[in-house]
Specification:
Structural class: alpha+beta
Radius of gyration: 12 Å
Largest sheet: 3 strands, antiparallel
Strand content: 5-15%
Strand order of the largest sheet: 1-3-2
Length: 73
């Protein structure tokens, strides 16, 4: 999932998009497993997972990976 965020920085990704990018499958309506995965990822990378600054929740839209990313080839 982190790879999906890094490949799409500063773009709001819906739950369905994250499921497709991270697992290669379509989401089931009301599939909340992505929320659990984001919570686990936040625990690993956020300074304070209760007040996220790296992966923000965008209400009614999805999640936003806030850092800018530079890809070297």
């Amino acid at each position: 999932m982190l790879q999906a965020f890094v490949e799409h920085p500063q773009i709001i990704l819906s739950r369905e998009q994250l499921l497709d990018l991270a697992r290669g499958r379509s989401s089931v309506l009301f599939d909340r497993s992505i929320d659990v995965q984001v919570m686990r990822l936040r625990r690993k990378i956020e300074p304070d997972p209760q007040l996220p600054v790296i992966i923000k929740t965008v209400r009614n839209s999805g999640y936003l990976f806030t850092p800018s990313v530079t890809m070297d080839e």
